[in-house]
Amino acid sequence: MMTYLDWFILIALAGGLVRGLMAGAIRQVASIFGLILAFILGVQLMRPIGAMTVDTIGLSESTAPIVGFVVVFGGVQLIVIALARMIEAAVESLNLSFANRAAGGALGAFKAALLLSVLFLVTTQAGLPDDKTQKASALYTPIAEVLPGTWDRVAPYLPAVQQASEAFGRSVRPQLQNGGESETSNDTSAEPETDTDAARETDPDSLSADL
């Protein structure tokens, strides 16, 4: 049975497919390169930009790298969109063939999957969606792994991508895989010790035994 999250993913992928069919492969290739560039710069600059956000608006140090990544990624995407529109204006007289449109549709769906993967990466840091919703969704995990999987395949061929992939793995990817499990386990393991200490403090027999 499909969940609301599955429907959201399907609608986003369909939207990317339709947009790609309308735009054609040329624009989609430029857009995907812009997405890759935005991710590389986002990973490389997320710590210094995140540190600036801590000083400017008082964010916690733990969330600063994620916010820095989002700021850089979004800024690069805005620049790429502006450049893409300039290119579109220059080549709008070109007639796109069916093959070009079909390739554009496939690339558009792939780009939508990449964007969803980035979105899930960011929202996971805030615990959204919860673990139950993730497991109930048939599409969440495959889509969430599109970006890491793509990076693992591309990284060996491009030094800049390799460096970004390593930084991504050290800083962000463990959060996507583990979520809040470590924090939950730490809290659970700490409870018995607290209860025992409290019992010893309030039990006269325990106090006399210690003395």
Question: What keyword list fits this structure?
Answer:
membrane, transmembrane, disordered C terminus, mainly alpha, 83% helix, 211 residues
Structure description:
There is one protein chain. By secondary structure, the protein is mainly alpha-helical. The protein has helices at residues 4-23, 25-57, 64-91, 98-124, 131-136, 140-144, 146-154, 159-171, 173-178, 181-202, 204-210. It has two domains: 4-179, no CATH class; 181-211. Helix 2 (25-57) runs antiparallel to helix 3 (64-91), helix 2 (25-57) runs parallel beside helix 4 and helix 2 crosses helix 8 (159-171). The longest helix has 33 residues, at 25-57. It is globular, with a radius of gyration of 23 Å. The relative contact order is 0.13. Residues 169-211 are annotated as: Disordered. The chain crosses the membrane at residues 33-54, 66-87, 107-128.
